[in-house]
Design a protein that fits this description.
The structure holds 2 protein chains of 2 kinds. Chain A has 16 helices and 8 strands. Chain A is an alpha/beta fold. The longest helix of chain A is centred in the middle third of the chain and has 25 residues. Chain B is globular, with a radius of gyration of 21 Å. Classes of the chains: A alpha/beta, B alpha/beta.
């Protein structure tokens, strides 16, 4: 899938990067990847995390493999998920729960979530009640960026670390935490390098392919992910050419994991060169910056609360500002807002975000979809019309 | 986007209250408390309608926001979601408001009272406030609604961040948030908070909560003395008149009436056959129908764990800001906001047993994600105490979701099931 030759609208030059194959294999086999199976068979701990406000570095520093709990990357029936979460909860939550209920995450030794949105907190409640993972922790995540909010969130991060240490009978040292922060910062820098390539007029990698890399990023140890991403970057930098298309697009909105959805946009000639999603820039956006006099946990807490914000945060202007900035940096001609149905925070933001982007002359196409959806004829038609409108403006 | 103007909904509510009052006052069997209730509603909406004319400062706020602060500062409150409900309840529909919300780009997944509220502001159906104050109690819709209102109404706002759990640090965080919010209101309105007055308000709020508990105790009687959907009065009292003298007056009167009814063994419906637990809010536009159905079938709501069942706890009015925080953590529905552990599930089971419930009706509001996600959990909890649950898909104000016939059919089938048991 997503072979360059299959992308009809965006014109690929050259081949699909060889280094992408590792990431594809991880995504194809997740959650039963070779690395997860090996980790589990060696008796090492694997924890699932929900939402980007969970500081993964603490888990890693505790010798744990952190894995993001995601749902199916494809369209599928969600009978169990619907029965337990009701169908007016977002299909991301229902899809994750379905995988949990059907035993696909039974290798997990713990689940960590944040009080981020209704879908996430209810998913956590039902997971705890019905799936029986041995360890559960939910962090209070304030919705503001004030000093007071930072103090509260730092306390929550400290509490989480203590809970983890007590549960596993371990001591997470500053040395191991520092090593984990450095490792994760390296991942962020490498992903930033990858995104820098997308700023090219003719990027060497498609938006769908980037989504494949990002999906794998949550599903494999960062040590091996970084190695493979470095290899991909080297290959891409040597690549003779790249993609062209009718317009440069940014995808903005809630959680998205199916690269086919982005491919369906690219098939119409849209070049997806930037994104603002729970599974993209909002995951890796900012580095952990350790200021003089900071404890490591304070630096971590600050990074997670101040990171490229989710629509849950107040004021929303901070998210809008970053989106407008990203759209400018990547010279996008239009934004496609994708919102998983029943994702209320992003739905609420859409009227205001549309206005802010209109102020900088960037049009928005709004698409509702179900998590795992690969796009449809209707989406293709709407994207076509959107691209025509953008072309007419040029 | 230009949104067409629509009629003044506050006027419609005021007119409807007057008509209902005149009907109640000429009905010899009407409850005295019911008259007081409608007088209160009339006063609330008349004050809101006339606020601009009287140069009064309007503070719009979302559900569960501590309106005690607004009332203690003598500002005019506008409970946004309740105003959408009241429009639906008193005018029979609010499709024009929902349509106005849709024209602004609000997705249908957003809860209808919030879509209706945004639409109402945009089309001039309700007065624009001087400030918008809102909080994340109890869902994402409340957390996210304020900024759009600020934009539509071109007014300043304050978001009150209520932490997820109830640790001392989190409660202290919320207390500081409230202090900042008071400072914001003072700056915007030019009025100073009188903390002695706030203490008095919180003292009455504490009394109000205690009176609701006492009313609920009386509802344990068989037959239950309170009207089938009367709990909505208790809910509205807390939403619109927290800590107000007229609330105390209403509740004292109601309690006396219920005591008398218990003494006379007089039930709320002629022949009580089924004692129901109500989970969440019935469709407002079907209230008259549901009342009638209850009288016909003898099915009466006797307890609502997430609306009227306050559980334990006492406020300390000598620390008024802290008591506002304490109340925020005691509100029955906020049991569902924090980690949904055993306390919420135990509360349901306790209610089912103590109020001798035969069955529960879950009004599954399509726009309320966080509540519907509890259906399975609550059904399983109630199954432990042998109480079956009917789930009724509906919307609290959007009539396109459920019809009367559909509700009747499902209710009748459910009651047959209870009969067979």
């Amino acid at each position: 899938m997503f072979e360059g030759s299959k992308i009809h609208g965006s014109q690929p030059i050259g081949k699909t990067p060889v280094a992408l194959e590792v990431f594809r294999e991880v995504n194809r086999t997740f959650p039963g990847t070779a690395e997860i199976r090996e980790w589990h068979s060696n008796g090492k701990k694997i924890f699932g995390w929900l939402c980007t406000y969970v500081p993964e570095e603490i888990l890693h520093a505790g010798g744990i493999l952190p894995v993001r709990i995601t749902g199916y990357d494809r369209e599928t029936e969600l009978d169990e998920g619907n029965a337990y979460l009701y169908n007016n909860n977002c299909s991301f939550s229902r899809s994750c729960l379905q995988m949990g209920l059907t035993g696909q995450y039974k290798f997990l030794d713990g689940v960590v979530g944040g009080s981020t949105c209704d879908g996430a907190r209810r998913l956590f409640d039902l997971w705890r009640e019905y799936i029986g993972t041995p360890f559960h922790h939910v962090l209070t995540v304030p919705r503001k960026y004030t000093d007071r909010a930072h103090r509260l969130y730092l306390e929550e991060v400290e509490l989480f670390k203590r809970h983890l240490e007590e549960h596993l009978g371990i001591n997470i040292t500053d040395e191991s935490l520092m090593a984990s922060i450095e490792l994760y910062n390296q991942t962020r820098l490498l992903l930033k390098d990858l995104y820098e390539l997308r700023k090219n007029p003719s990027p060497p990698i498609s938006g769908a392919q980037v989504m494949e890399v990002l999906d794998a990023c949550f599903r494999m140890p960062k040590e091996s992910f970084n190695l493979h991403l470095k290899a991909l970057l080297e290959e891409l930098k040597k690549s003779p050419g790249g993609y062209s298309g009718r317009a440069r697009l940014m995808i903005s909105g809630s959680v998205l994991a199916n690269p086919d959805f982005i491919a369906s946009i690219e098939q119409q000639g849209g070049m997806v060169v930037a994104d603002e999603l729970c599974t993209s820039t909002r995951y890796w956006g900012d580095r952990v910056d350790i200021k003089e006099g900071d404890s490591l946990l304070a630096a971590l807490a600050r990074r997670y609360l101040n990171n490229y914000p989710c629509a849950r945060m107040f004021p929303s202007e901070e998210r809008f500002r970053r989106i407008v900035e990203t759209a400018g940096d990547f010279k996008v001609d239009g934004v496609i807002s994708e919102i998983i149905r029943y994702c209320v925070p992003y739905s609420h933001d859409l009227p205001l975000l549309t206005k802010r982007l209109a102020d900088v002359n960037i049009p928005v196409l709004s698409i509702d979809l179900e998590y795992g959806s690969s796009g449809s004829g209707q989406v293709a038609t709407r994207v076509q019309a959107f691209l025509e409108m953008i072309e007419a403006r040029k | 986007m230009t949104i067409a103007k629509t009629s003044n909904k506050i006027n419609s509510i005021v007119r409807a209250c007057r008509i209902i009052l005149s009907m109640i006052e000429s009905d010899p069997n009407a409850r005295e408390s019911q008259k007081k209730y409608y007088h209160m509603l009339l006063k609330y909406y008349t004050r809101l309608r006339d606020a601009r004319e009287n140069n009064q400062f309007i503070a719009a706020h979302t559900v569960f926001f501590p309106a005690e602060i607004i009332l203690a500062m003598d500002l005019v409150p506008m409970h946004t979601e309740t105003t959408t409900w009241m429009t639906s309840l008193f005018t029979g529909e609010c499709s024009d408001l929902l349509a106005a919300g849709a024209r602004m780009g609000m997705a249908t997944e957003i809860c209808a009272p919030h879509r209706g509220m945004a639409g109402a502001f945009a089309c001039g159906a309700i007065p624009k406030p001087d400030v918008m104050v809102w909080s994340n109690m109890v869902c994402d819709n409340t957390a996210k609604s304020g900024e759009l209102v600020m934009d539509i109404c071109d007014c300043p706002g304050f978001f009150l961040d209520r932490p997820f759990k109830d640790s001392p640090l989190e409660k202290a965080y919320m207390a500081d948030e409230i202090r900042d919010m008071i400072a914001f209101l003072e700056a915007q309105s030019g009025k100073k908070m009188d903390y002695d007055r706030l203490s008095e308000v919180m003292e009455r709020t504490d009394r109000q909560i205690q009176l609701v508990r006492e009313v609920n105790e009386l509802r344990k009687n068989i037959p239950t003395p309170f009207s089938p959907l009367g709990f909505l009065e208790l809910l509205t009292i807390d939403y619109l008149f927290p800590g107000q003298p007229e609330s105390i007056d209403y509740l004292v009167t109601l309690k006396q009436e219920l005591e008398q009814a218990v003494k006379e063994k007089k039930g709320a419906v002629p022949n009580e056959r089924f004692r129901l637990m109500t989970l969440f809010i019935p469709p407002m536009y079907l209230m008259a129908f549901l009342e009638k159905l209850a009288a016909q079938t003898g099915a009466v709501s006797v307890i609502e764990p997430f609306f009227t069942f306050w559980g334990e706890g006492k406020l300390d009015p000598s620390h008024p800001v802290e008591s506002v925080v304490e109340k925020a953590y005691m509100i029955p529905e906020t049991r569902m906001y924090g980690p949904l552990g055993t306390s919420a599930l135990d509360a349901i089971k306790k209610c089912a047993c103590d109020w001798k419930v035969d069955g529960a009706v879950y009004y599954a509001d399509v726009g309320c994600r966080h509540s519907c996600a509890t259906i399975k959990l609550f059904k399983d909890a109630l199954a432990d105490v042998d109480v079956p649950v009917l789930t009724l898909d509906c919307d609290v104000v959007d009539q396109t979701v459920t019809s009367e016939d559909e509700v009747r059919e499902k209710m009748e089938r459910f009651l047959e099931l209870l009969e067979d048991r």
